[in-house]
Write a structure and sequence with these properties.
Layout: H1 3-15, H2 22-39, H3 43-50, H4 54-62, H5 71-77, H6 80-90, H7 94-113
Helix pairs in contact: 2-6, 2-7, 3-4, 4-7, 5-7, 6-7
Length: 119
């Protein structure tokens, strides 16, 4: 592990970044809303299918216990510039963003699929 990675990990630990979900969850909603505006109602599902995760995202929509995803899945499903955007929006490190997205994205997908007033 490099000094930079060690410092980032230490910073995430000291600030509790792995457990700070509020800002990132808001950013996830904004990200998904942007995809919907750009690509239509099923834009994220279509991106997931293109990355080979269409069936997984379909399970997230149907079952709130179907997650989480792996960090590798996050990196394959969400482009690096978008991951960088999440980090900028939240002040979290890149590794913390990926870890939290892996846990929270399936939950957000489920909640959005079952929301009374759609996002």
């Amino acid at each position: 592990m490099s000094i930079t990675n060690s410092a980032t990990s230490l910073g995430d630990f000291l600030t509790g970044a792995k457990y700070d979900h509020s800002g990132l969850v808001s950013a996830i909603h904004e990200y998904l809303d942007n995809i919907r505006r750009e690509s239509g109602l099923n834009g994220f599902a279509e991106r997931a299918a293109a990355a080979g995760y269409g069936d997984i995202v379909a399970r997230w929509k149907a079952d709130d216990k179907a997650g989480p995803m792996t960090e590798d899945m996050v990196r394959r499903l969400i482009a690096q510039p978008d991951l960088d955007w999440f980090a900028e929006q939240t002040g979290l490190s890149g590794p913390a963003v990926v870890q939290i997205l892996a846990r929270q994205l399936p939950i957000v997908i489920y909640k959005r699929a079952h929301a009374v007033s759609p996002h």
